[in-house]
Amino acid sequence: EKEIAAFVPVEYWSLTANLEGSLPPAFQAKLAQVDGEKAELGNEAVVTALRAKIEGAPFVLKEVVRRERKRMPYAPFVTSKLQQEAARKLGFTAKKTMTLAQKLYEGVELEGGEPVGLITYMRTDSTRLSDDAVAQVRDYISQKYGAAFLPPQPWVYKSKKAAQDAHEAIRPTSIEYEPARVKAFLERDMFRLYELIWKRFVACQMSQAVYDQTTFNIVAGPALFRATGSILKFAGFTQVYMEGHDEADVVPEEEEESSQLPDLKEGEILKLLGLEGKQHFTQPPPRFTEASLVKELEEKGIGRPSTYASILSVIQDKKYVEKLEGKFHPTQLGTIVNDLLTAHFPKILNIEFTAKMEEELDEVEEGKRTWVATLQDFYQPFAETLEKAKVDMKDLKRQEIATDLSCEKCGKPMVVKWGRHGEFLACSGYPECKNTKEVQRAAGGAYQAAAEKTTDEVCEKCGAAMVFKRGRFGEFLACSRYPECKSTKAIPIGVDCPECGKPLSERKTKRGKSFFGCTGYPNCKFALWDRPIPEPCPNGDSKFLLQKYSKKDGNRVACPNKECGYTRNLETPAAAAGGE
């Protein structure tokens, strides 16, 4: 983010020639060199001067280069690559990917009724495959796609240097469990992830893809223009799988979208249909997505396959970053925490330290180093730094950030503060003025007051509209005329209390845990930990159902009457569930 903030755009231009040869189709060629040097067009004046030199010159096809390019299949999935691809192709968070993969690993009930583990262990950094698995998939490729798609020998992929190699790569437990065969037994997203794993595994043992690539080098006066065309000659592994790409990735040349060039011969004089100059500006480094951040963690040696998902969850849960249009933006809280920690713990808040610590822990596991020595080397200097930081560091929650906003109650400046639920706007005139508002950031990063969420509810005391507010115990409805009118009301969830008939609402304990209680409290103390759903039990045992979650079964819907036993998958419509 600091690189983006410090980035200064630099202007540059491109020059494209629209050309036509003796055979169709017409094509485009981009300026590559001027006077034998790489073309650098810094402004429009340079482009105009160059155009004057070449517009009257003949465009001669000086050289035609035709070659065959081969593309290796991708290695089978390790944890980091699975998380990256699931983010790019399926839009899954790392946490969701690992949750679904865990279920696929632990087992799914297929036609026989017995749980079957569909994939191998999902936390691994090894690309190793068992001989049996390779033999199975090679036999499958030969029968399904033919001998041309099967390489003479199995592909063996190299794992990264620090790979622990405790588990195989992530693959289907059996090639017999084709996606089409198991689709009926899997939830939609679980199926999509399984299909991704299955296709990647099959593709990793298929033949290379082959491309025919043609390059035209065209001379016009002092300029050299270049056109490249690439067509897929043999699909190979791409028949089954193509990897996704991030914004910052360099896409392999043969994978770039490219039109086929006409079959022209060297020495031809080409017809110039037009020259197109276009202004560009260099771009700052792109912000991280989940996929690119996992890739960066892996490349920098930070974390392990088992921790990538939790790292991404923690920085979001603690409000250090927020995701806007799929990209991470640091919050003001995250920026301040980062600045404070890097200032007071420079050795620990350092990529090299983290990677070195991972290496030392590996050495402890391998018996090359004792854990006592490792801990002593770390703890003594850390303890001294920690004690100093306790004295020097300010209380973050006491800090305030000035804004350009004014309090509509008293006219004093509004400031950003931190509370239990993160950032909020408060009047700098506190405690005389207690005006607060929810805050949000505009696209440019500036603070602005979040628009109040209105409702159809009206205040029972004064008749004004009720709006959503957030307090210590979660969201509630408050009169829009506050502080003149201090009327509040709990937000109903569409389910009535079975004991007194009043609406249930979501509340929070002092520790922040959600529960669902009667709005008739304290006269009625009925409460639930599970979220009630306004849907009657089909067996007639309750007027509502409960949403439950367990690692084994995931999200389920169940009757609150334990003796009833009704349950179904959360995503399954009630009518389709029958009497499950």
Description:
Among the domains are: 2-72 and 209-281, Topoisomerase I, domain 3; 79-203, Orthogonal Bundle (Topoisomerase I, domain 4), CATH 1.10.290; 300-393, Topoisomerase I, domain 2 (Orthogonal Bundle), CATH 1.10.460. It is 26% helix and 28% strand. It is built from 13 helices and 29 strands. The protein has a six-stranded antiparallel beta barrel with strand order 1-2-8-7-4-9. A hairpin with an 8-residue loop joins strand 20 and strand 21. It is globular, with a radius of gyration of 31 Å. The relative contact order is 0.09.
Level-1 CATH class name of one domain: Mainly Beta
Question: DSSP helix count?
Answer: 13
Largest sheet, strands/sense/barrel: 6 strands, antiparallel, barrel
> What's the number of extended β-strand segments?
29
Question: Which CATH architecture of one domain would you pick?
Answer: Distorted Sandwich
Radius of gyration: 31 Å
Shape: globular
Tell me the structural class.
Answer: alpha+beta
Low-confidence segments: 575-580
Which range best describes the helical content: under 10%, 10-25%, 25-40%, 40-55%, 55-70% or over 70%? 25-40%
Q: Brief description of this entry?
A:
By secondary structure, this protein is of the alpha+beta class. It is built from 13 helices and 29 strands.
List descriptors.
580 residues, alpha+beta, Topoisomerase I, domain 3, Topoisomerase I, domain 4, Topoisomerase I, domain 2, six-stranded antiparallel β-barrel, four-stranded antiparallel sheet, 13 helices, 26% helix, disordered C terminus
